[in-house]
């Protein structure tokens, strides 16, 4: 359902999706596949049908069903192009667990030229979306240093550059881009230009060159749109351009891009894509509803288990709640942002959340009595209420009463929060 007030018409985009534009797919074809053309009804291969639905961004359920059908077809599984199309649809459709399971089965399959490289690239994408930064780097690094085809290698380079920039390693991102002549390859007109433009935009955004970043993201979008790729699940160029435009003071452009992205995401209907787009709307054009929109975004991202994106939303929520004077809420969300950044291996974002936390003083709490503090520390040590009662020669109901009073004073609801609460009071 489109969020009230965010109904924005999509641009009418035509054209045939080029199946190699954002992944290094080969040129082989399924023997039963009709030539792609404006009449999509001529598409008979399940893998091609899946990718048509993916790039048009209109039928998430049908796309996933077609991808699964293709991966169950031995003829499709023997084709580099079909494997790439089907796995791509699962990955960008948010079906990360089945995508990873299929990729593991296909990774070492002999006799199919190009499949191992494509599968490794997609496994790296799954790792990144799941928040396993170390695994993503390892897989991308194996491709960057391999003798695989140029397009596969350059997509790996681009994704590795983006990952470095996102994690705050700007020097590493620049060095990697320079070592592989990212600018020169872009000028050569290689098929994966949108991916390379997005990577260069990410570096510009990380160093604060927001105007350059906007230009690269818009160029990326023009190339995708000209080929019929309108689904923001494939590449969220509008959201990234919107955030950069907002930082550059171009509020009108930022609002238009973010709202177009949200409308396209809703048309696709997958939780991560919608949650990510809604977060961009909240940041650049929340119109006084920033907290409410970010909370809704967080719920969608939690549903999708999109931990990297959820960490960003928690940070934005924390900052805005702090500005409203909601100290407890701000610290809760900033603390979670810090924890999620650590979980996904993003030290840059963890440090950002830590700095924000330091600027939000914990609320003053009523001091615990000596007995309450003693019981609370035993509870933290792992003792049950019954064990605490025996250790202190107290009635069980007395222990329960003191713990309940301690929870009330500390503003918490149970043992899970007790350690952090006592640390804050120290």
Spatial shape: globular
Order of helices and strands: HHHHHHHHHHHHHHHHHHHHHHH
Describe the biggest sheet?
none
User: What is the CATH C-level name of the domain at 370-425?
Assistant: Mainly Alpha
User: Structural class per helix/strand content?
Assistant: mainly alpha
Give the CATH architecture of the domain at 370-425: Orthogonal Bundle
What's the gyration radius in Å?
Answer: 25 Å
CATH topology of the domain at 370-425: Arc Repressor Mutant, subunit A
The low-confidence parts are 1-42
* Average pLDDT rating: 84
How much β-strand is present in the residues? under 5%
CATH H-level superfamily title of the domain at 370-425 = Winged helix-like DNA-binding domain superfamily/Winged helix DNA-binding domain
Helix content: 55-70%
**Number of beta-strand segments:** 0
Q: Count of helical segments?
A: 23
- What is the distance, rounded to the nearest whole angstrom, between the alpha carbons of the first and last residues? 46 Å
Can you offer a commentary on this structure?
The chain is mostly helical and 426 residues long. It has a domain at 370-425: Orthogonal Bundle (Arc Repressor Mutant, subunit A). The chain has 23 helices and no strands. Helix 6 (115-130) runs parallel beside helix 8 (150-166). The protein is globular and about 75 Å long. 50% of the residues are buried. Mean pLDDT is 84; it is low at 1-42.
């Amino acid at each position: 359902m489109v969020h009230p007030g965010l109904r924005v018409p999509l641009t009418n985009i035509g054209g045939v999706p080029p199946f190699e534009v954002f992944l290094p797919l080969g040129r082989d074809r399924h023997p039963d596949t009709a030539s792609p053309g404006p009449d999509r009804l001529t598409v008979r291969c399940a893998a091609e049908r899946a990718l048509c639905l993916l790039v048009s961004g209109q039928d998430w359920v049908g796309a996933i069903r077609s991808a699964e059908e293709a991966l169950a077809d031995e003829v499709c599984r023997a084709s580099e192009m079909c494997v790439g199309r089907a796995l791509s649809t699962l990955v960008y459709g948010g079906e990360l667990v089945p995508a990873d399971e299929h990729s593991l089965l296909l990774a070492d399959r002999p006799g199919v030229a190009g499949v191992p490289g494509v599968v490794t690239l997609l496994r790296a994408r799954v790792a990144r979306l799941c928040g396993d930064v170390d695994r993503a780097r390892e897989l991308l690094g194996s491709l960057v240093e391999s003798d695989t085809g140029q397009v596969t290698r350059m997509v790996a380079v681009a994704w590795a550059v983006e990952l470095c920039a996102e994690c705050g390693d700007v020097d590493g991102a620049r060095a990697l881009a320079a070592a592989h002549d990212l600018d020169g390859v872009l000028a050569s007109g290689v098929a994966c230009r949108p991916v390379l433009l997005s990577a260069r935009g990410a570096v510009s955004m990380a160093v604060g060159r927001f105007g350059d970043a906007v230009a690269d993201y818009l160029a990326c979008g023009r190339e995708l749109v000209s080929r019929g790729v309108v689904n923001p699940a494939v590449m969220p160029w509008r959201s990234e351009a919107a955030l950069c435009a907002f930082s550059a003071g171009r509020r009108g452009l930022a609002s238009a891009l973010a709202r177009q992205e949200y409308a396209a995401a809703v048309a696709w209907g997958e939780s991560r894509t919608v949650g990510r787009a809604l977060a961009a709307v909240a940041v650049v054009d929340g119109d006084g509803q920033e907290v409410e929109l970010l909370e809704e975004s967080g719920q969608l991202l939690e549903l999708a288990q999109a931990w990297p994106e959820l960490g960003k939303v928690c940070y934005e929520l924390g900052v805005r709640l702090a500005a409203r004077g909601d100290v407890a809420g701000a610290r809760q969300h900033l603390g979670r942002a810090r924890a999620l950044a650590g979980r996904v291996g993003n030290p840059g974002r963890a440090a950002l959340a830590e700095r924000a936390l330091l600027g939000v003083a914990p609320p003053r709490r009523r001091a615990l009595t000596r007995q309450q503090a003693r019981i609370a520390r035993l509870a933290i040590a792992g003792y049950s209420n019954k064990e605490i009662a025996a250790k202190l020669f107290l009635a069980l109901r007395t222990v329960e009463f003191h713990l309940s009073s301690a929870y009330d004073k500390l503003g918490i609801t149970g043992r899970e929060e007790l350690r952090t609460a006592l640390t804050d009071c120290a």
